[in-house]
Design brief:
The relative contact order is 0.16. This protein has helices at 2-15, 34-38, 78-88, 93-110, 126-132, 136-148, 171-177, 206-217, 235-239, and strands at residues 18-19, 26-27, 69-75, 118-121, 156-157, 183-184, 194-202, 222-230. The protein folds into 2 domains: 1-38, no CATH class; 45-239, 3-Layer(aba) Sandwich (Rossmann fold). The longest helix is centred in the middle third of the chain and has 18 residues, at 93-110. A 4-stranded parallel sheet has the order 3-8-7-4, with helices on both faces. The protein has a two-stranded antiparallel ribbon with strand order 1-2. Strands 5-6 form a two-stranded antiparallel sheet. Helix 4 (93-110) packs across helix 6. It has 9 helices and 8 strands. Bound molecules: zinc ion (2 copies). One zinc ion binds at residues 20, 22-23, 25, 32-33, 35-36.
């Protein structure tokens, strides 16, 4: 029986080989080949709970965020972005599985707030969703919901399209750009709730902060933000 299951497993691997999320080589391992798995990009760093950056890059002094804590998983370096984009733009669900597992691990091990009532995701405008075909942040949030066993509920919406954050230069502009961009859904009751707010990539934190602000204004008790990737600021940006 054991031999049979081993044979079946080998046959499945042969028919559906694992492709490394980073270099796209066929690998016997899940998610990454040995070389990519051992590369520094996938090593977790200890990050500041207030801004999500490693201690030496902490920019809490420059920013004020509406979320109570931020959990950040990976630096958005070239290799990690490549892995993430295979899911974000390529619809590779193996990538979604990897990132949601890692995010869940990080939430369980690091969050100061373990009594979560609900998980929600940063919404996209429907024109963006139509273009991409699916909502990658919602996919992540729903996967995390299954792993950590907290219910997922859409709580926010983005009523009108606006310039994409990554096309906006400068920290101040990014914070202005998101003002009034998000709304809490009319039927959502967030009063006294501790909410896990999921996003895919954090750059300045403006989007997560604005969503957290709306949730707080609607009565949420606590908002814990989590992002799969975090763009680390360039030193000269921080010192401005
Ligand atoms: Zn690889
Ligand atoms: Zn900080």
């Amino acid at each position: 029986m054991r031999l049979l299951s081993k044979l079946t497993e080998n046959l499945i691997t042969l028919l559906f080989p694992n492709i490394c999320l980073n270099c796209r080589k066929i690998t016997p391992l899940k998610y990454f080949c040995k070389d990519c798995r051992n590369s520094a990009s996938y090593i977790h760093l200890k990050t500041c709970p207030d801004c999500g950056l490693p201690q030496k890059l902490c920019d809490c002094k420059w920013n004020f965020y509406y979320f109570d804590e931020i959990i950040s998983c990976f630096e958005a370096d070239e290799a990690t972005k490549r892995s993430f984009y295979s899911f974000k733009f390529g619809g590779n669900l193996v990538g979604a599985e990897f990132f949601s597992k890692e995010m869940s691990k990080r939430i369980k091990n690091n969050s100061l707030y373990l009594d979560l009532d609900v998980i929600t995701s940063v919404p996209s405008h429907r024109s963006t969703l139509r273009e991409r075909g699916y909502d990658q942040v919602k996919v992540l949030a729903k996967d995390i919901s299954k792993i950590i066993k907290v219910k997922y509920q859409p709580l926010l919406r983005q009523p009108s399209p606006s310039p994409k954050q990554h096309e906006t230069e400068g920290i101040a502009e990014r914070f202005t750009n998101v003002l009034g961009k998000y709304e809490v859904l009319k039927n959502a009751d967030v009063r006294d709730k501790t909410i896990l707010l999921v996003d895919d990539i954090k750059t300045t934190g403006a989007t997560l902060s604005q969503c957290a602000r709306e949730l707080k204004l609607a009565g949420a008790k606590c908002v814990v933000a989590v992002s799969a990737l975090t763009v680390y600021p360039k030193k000269d940006n921080v010192e401005k």
